[in-house]
Amino acid sequence: MNYHIDTRSSVPAYMQLYKFIKQDILSEVYPYGSRLPSKRTIAEETGVSVVTVEHAIALLSEEGYIETRQRSGCFVIYNKSDFHGTPLLKSITFPEIQPQSSSVGDFPFSVFAKTMRKVLNHYGNRIFVKSPNSGCDELRTEICLYLARSRGIFVKPSQIIVGSGAEYLYGLIAQLFRDRKKFALEQPSYDKIRKVYEAMGIQCDMLSMTQDGIASKELERTDATVLHVTPFNSFPSGVTAGISKKHEYLRWAKQRDGFIIEDNYDSELTVSKKPEDPLFSITTDSNVVYVNTFSKTIAPSMRIGYMILPEKLLEDFQRRLGFYSCTVPVFEQLVLAELLRNGDFERHINRVRRKKRKAVNAVGNDGLNNEKSF
């Protein structure tokens, strides 16, 4: 393994190792079915501890690149061509439930109130000025910085469009791609997605799901050229697309000169130690529009969402839709920008994720204890 771990880098050693191994898997240095060197061998050849290797291996396993087999080692399960034969979820009845609002009070009220006062004192009556149509520069810049350090998404502020929640942004997307006329959606999916698109005159083709995402046969069947997906924790199925399925989505878009709408409303709250890799950060073809919202991560009343447009769509968007005024008040944008800038938002996300991990571990431990009691 010719990996150089930079001990002076701000990137943790396990993340550097994770990226090296992932790249070798994607490049088929380690092809499908092959066995990775042992943890001890990797540690010796890279000069890191076995614990560091275990952290990297855990991330690769969580994301579906490898599989750990007891007493046998770690084997590559990522396969570029392995996308067929996954059974449809026809026999599964998905629960008839409404999307849960995040618990009111999850975000520390005292922190939020302090930030509001700070923004009022700093900006004064400038909060009464009309927002630029795409959103305040302060917020768009902070979103870019946050995405770069937390999600591996590197974009310019000009690519960020701010709006009052995901539903408003769906409407803009429908108008942007109105010439394509038909969108493909997950079945089942959050029903408002379909309702917004149909209200805008878009025909929706509902594609059946498997336990790993949209069925390959369904992707082949549809003649839509826009695909709206929720790769992480899709509602209401709870399905999370593996890395192979994500690459299948990207190839689907490339083959038909199409676009993917990546709806990542819940991905920041994963229990994984590393957030899910968005399609936007994986693609090399500028064919993904990324949509996210702060309503889930801060509070339901924070009707602030944003989308990231590929640069090749910016001119078309501004020509067609650039006249729309931003629907989020300047004051709220500046408060959110400050929460992102001073780290309070990320500290909150990390607290929530730690809490969810503890809950998952507690359930797992209870299960083990119950098994031992028999």
UniProtKB/TrEMBL annotation:
Signal peptide: none annotated. GO terms for molecular function: DNA binding; DNA-binding transcription factor activity; pyridoxal phosphate binding; transaminase activity. It comes from the Bacteria. Residues 11-79 form the HTH gntR-type domain. It holds the Pfam family GntR. InterPro entries: Aminotransferase_I/II_large, HTH_trans_reg/aminotransferase, PyrdxlP-dep_Trfase, PyrdxlP-dep_Trfase_major, Tscrpt_reg_HTH_GntR, WH-like_DNA-bd_sf, WH_DNA-bd_sf. Keywords: Aminotransferase, DNA-binding, Pyridoxal phosphate, Transcription, Transcription regulation, Transferase. PANTHER family: HTH-TYPE TRANSCRIPTIONAL REGULATORY PROTEIN GABR. This is GntR family transcriptional regulator / MocR family aminotransferase. It comes from Thermoclostridium caenicola.
